[in-house]
Q: What sequence folds into this?
């Protein structure tokens, strides 16, 4: 792999982000449902519940990205373009997720009417709040965590799920699709890091937001087991 | 109180064994050549290794005797009389005896009197744990010196008959994998509370490790049968039953193995963040990676993190000496010191990731005046 981020400040930022990611990766591996998933002890109900709980965040995901686009002023119009493009690409992802839920034996009407879990409420609330601030460059930290998880879902979780169950129709299209596209998204993110990691203040903001998002995403996953 | 590595030594049994000769020693399982062998050897990059068993699979030298030989080589390179050694700290993943501790057997072989004794048990990182015990002993002024020895004799686990005992006679990838990875050998380090004028005294700046056994399942093990979660080898009616069930096989869950890369890089980034290590001040890296494959993965990830260290700074003798588990890092350090012209102030960063249940140990050394 070539050096992906070129500026020295960008490299500091990326190094700190990678550490936040690895901390998150370890923390997520300890979440009960993830442990069952990664150790081959997932039930079909578990997988359905996981999709059910991810769906709301995925729908809301495109909303905070769109809102953040409108919060970037003319000095950041290049970033605004990237973010709009990103939001456009992902804002119908939830349809893949719903199709997976049905392929895994769930009812369309159930996934359409399920509320956000407590972790998703907190995560969504925080992201919408940050996205409403002027020039919210710190949200690069949020994208970093969410893209990283997409990559993990595609390269690991999808494989484990398909090893444990045999579905008639593909029931992991959301996780797989995410992985295929995340390579490009990661490259976009690296470019964004070079663009906005121009001061220690910006880097601190990015890292802080990455940490908060990681913690709240973890809460969202922990709450899957509390789903009634 | 500073602590210095003042002498090193190693012992590798017998003549080097080329990849073509491995099955002459370990035997053909059910009389058939392995179909996995070349694939795994191509991936790990090892071209020769040493075994303490001969082609008749008779043990030529015990694990504790190999350890003692490495210890003697180390003492003979030093300024110290064996009678002055105050502490002996040993590591292995499997001694010759189940009990007593490996250190007792090594002490007897070395004929060292009245030493403080320590044995650390584990897999690849156990040598670093033994080294840490010796380092803290001297640091806290409980002893003036310590001999640290790590030794492995895994080839006994790989004899074809061991595999043929398993009921159903089925050898899966996870059971066979390590057969092509591991081999035998021992390494030793002598620590003292003062440097010696050899130009090769290395001050130990720190030794730290981070274990993640609470996060991940067991990845490398002896003691349970395939797909068995709770029942371990001593829970069977007889040891013969345990062997038949496959509970005594050395297994690697290869699917979990990738986690070792992120665990290793995670610890490294943590050390950078804590200010323990500055990437651009590292002159040499000695990393116990088990194969070429993992080396490139570690490289990629460090590069992405902007924490990469130039390839020419990395040293290993894995490919010529084999993967000797916990002994590897000492055997590597010994050969590195003897083949490099070290300059005062140069730094050496050592890293030993253990896949057993994901422990990763690190050490920082500086060449002393």
A:
């Amino acid at each position: 792999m070539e050096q992906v981020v070129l500026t020295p400040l960008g490299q500091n930022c990326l190094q700190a982000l990678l550490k936040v990611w690895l901390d998150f990766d370890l923390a997520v591996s300890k979440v009960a449902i993830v442990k069952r998933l990664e150790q081959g002890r997932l039930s079909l109900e578990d997988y359905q519940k996981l999709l059910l709980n991810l769906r709301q965040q995925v729908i809301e995901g495109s909303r905070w990205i769109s809102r953040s686009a409108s919060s970037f002023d003319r000095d950041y119009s290049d970033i605004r373009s990237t973010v709009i493009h990103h939001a456009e690409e992902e804002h119908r992802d939830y349809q893949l997720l719903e199709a997976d839920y049905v392929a895994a034996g769930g009812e369309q009407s159930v996934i359409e009417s399920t509320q956000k879990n407590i972790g998703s409420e907190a995560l969504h609330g925080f992201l919408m709040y940050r996205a409403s601030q002027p020039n919210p460059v710190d949200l690069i930290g949020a994208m970093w965590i969410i893209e990283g998880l997409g990559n993990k879902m595609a390269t690991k979780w999808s494989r484990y799920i398909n090893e444990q169950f045999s579905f008639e129709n593909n029931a992991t299209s959301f996780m797989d699709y995410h992985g295929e596209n995340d390579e490009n998204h990661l490259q976009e993110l690296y470019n964004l890091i070079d663009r906005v990691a121009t001061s220690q203040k910006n880097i601190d903001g990015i890292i802080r937001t990455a940490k908060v998002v990681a913690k709240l995403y973890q809460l969202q996953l922990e709450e899957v087991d509390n789903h009634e | 109180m500073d602590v210095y590595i003042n002498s090193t030594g190693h012992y590798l049994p017998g003549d080097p064994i080329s990849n073509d000769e491995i099955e002459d020693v370990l035997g053909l399982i059910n009389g058939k050549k392995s179909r996995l062998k070349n694939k795994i050897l191509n991936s790990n990059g090892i071209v020769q290794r040493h075994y303490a068993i001969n082609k008749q699979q008779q043990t030529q030298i015990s694990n504790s005797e190999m350890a003692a030989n490495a210890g003697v080589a180390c003492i003979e390179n030093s300024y110290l009389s064996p009678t002055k050694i105050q502490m002996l700290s040993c590591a292995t993943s499997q001694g010759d005896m189940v009990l007593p501790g490996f250190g007792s057997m090594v002490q007897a072989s070395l004929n060292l009197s009245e030493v403080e004794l320590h044995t650390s048990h584990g897999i690849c990182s156990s040598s670093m744990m033994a080294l840490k015990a010796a380092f803290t002993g001297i640091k806290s002024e409980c002893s003036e010196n310590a001999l640290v020895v790590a030794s492995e004799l895994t080839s006994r686990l790989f004899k074809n008959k061991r595999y043929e005992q398993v009921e159903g006679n089925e050898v899966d990838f996870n059971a066979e994998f390590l057969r092509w990875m591991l081999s035998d050998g021992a390494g030793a380090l002598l620590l003292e509370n003062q440097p010696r004028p050899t130009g090769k005294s290395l001050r130990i700046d720190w030794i730290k490790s981070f274990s993640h056994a609470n996060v991940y399942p067991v990845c490398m093990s002896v003691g349970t049968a395939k797909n068995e979660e709770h029942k371990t080898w001593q829970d069977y009616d007889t040891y013969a039953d345990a062997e038949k069930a496959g509970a005594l096989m050395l297994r690697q869950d290869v699917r979990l193995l990738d986690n070792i890369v992120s665990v290793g890089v995670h610890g490294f980034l943590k050390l950078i963040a804590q200010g323990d290590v500055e990437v651009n001040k590292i002159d040499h890296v000695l990393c116990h990676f088990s194969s070429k494959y993992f080396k490139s993965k570690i490289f990629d990830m460090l590069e992405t993190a902007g924490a990469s260290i130039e390839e020419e700074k990395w040293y290993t003798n894995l490919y010529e000496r084999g993967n000797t588990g916990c002994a590897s890092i000492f055997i590597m350090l010994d050969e590195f010191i003897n083949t490099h012209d070290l300059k005062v102030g140069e730094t050496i960063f050592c890293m030993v990731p253990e896949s057993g249940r994901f422990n990763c140990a690190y050490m920082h050394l500086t060449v002393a005046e």
About this structure: The longest strand of chain B covers residues 202-211.
